[in-house]
């Protein structure tokens, strides 16, 4: 079962509203843990002991931050097994002019919401037991996914982290060409990650 979260976006809304919307949606989903939430399908079919958070690009950033939020605030009755970050949109240690518009209240490249790699103490506490990071060779954010992976491995987290790099492809290519061979291979890799302990 998949639950897709729609959050408010720029330019109508600045960050951090997308994080707040996503957390509210995750809490709504978790309200079904005891089988008495407002959505019958979740009550009857969701396995709250086997939850994965995933996202593409900015959604990958949000997925990471929601796993951190579960550690900080808790989510009773929900076990986050894994996290899949597809072409994650993180910043690095250089100023990002775009983020100045999207997230004007941010501290920039020192903001843990945007640059988690510089906060190993938070990475070490991730509540999931495995992470799959997917990057593409021609993605201008490729190195940021690799930086996140290396920081997670060095943080002392101690669980399984894997990174997959697709040659010859660019940012979120699998959404633009879902029938392509590389996209199908990538989705098979993600499916394997989700279905195997």
Kindly state the number of beta strands.
Answer: 4
Overall shape: it is globular
The biggest sheet, with number of strands, parallel, antiparallel or mixed sense and barrel status, is: 4 strands, parallel
Structural class: alpha/beta
Strand content: 5-15%
Span from first to last CA? 17 Å
Neighbour order of strands in the largest sheet: 1-2-3-4
Uncertain runs are none
Chain-averaged pLDDT: 96
Number of helices: 8
Give Rg in angstroms: 17 Å
Task: Give an account of the 3D structure.
The chain has 197 residues and is of the alpha/beta class. It contains eight helices and four strands; from the N terminus they run H-H-E-H-E-H-H-E-H-E-H-H. The chain has a four-stranded parallel β-sheet, with helices on both faces. Helix 6 links the parallel strand 3 and strand 4. Helix 1 packs across helix 3. The longest helix has 16 residues. The radius of gyration is 17 Å and the shape is globular. The two termini are 17 Å apart. The relative contact order is 0.13.
């Amino acid at each position: 079962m998949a639950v897709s979260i729609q959050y408010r976006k720029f330019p109508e809304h600045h960050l951090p509203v997308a994080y707040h919307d996503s957390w509210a949606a995750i809490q709504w989903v978790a309200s079904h843990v005891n089988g008495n939430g407002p959505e019958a399908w979740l009550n009857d079919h969701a396995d709250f002991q086997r939850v994965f958070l995933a996202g593409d690009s900015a959604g990958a950033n949000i997925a990471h931050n929601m796993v951190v939020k579960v550690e900080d605030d808790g989510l009773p009755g929900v076990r986050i097994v894994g996290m899949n970050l597809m072409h994650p949109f993180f910043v690095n240690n250089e100023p990002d002019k775009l983020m100045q518009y999207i997230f004007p209240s941010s501290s920039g490249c020192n903001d843990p919401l945007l640059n988690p790699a510089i906060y190993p103490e938070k990475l070490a506490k991730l509540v999931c037991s495995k992470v799959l990071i997917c990057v593409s060779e021609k993605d201008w954010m490729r190195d940021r996914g690799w930086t996140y992976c290396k920081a997670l491995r060095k943080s002392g987290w101690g669980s399984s982290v894997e990174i997959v790099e697709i040659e010859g492809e660019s940012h979120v290519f699998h959404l633009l060409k879902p029938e392509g061979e590389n996209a199908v291979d990538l989705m098979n890799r993600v499916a394997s990650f989700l279905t195997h302990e």
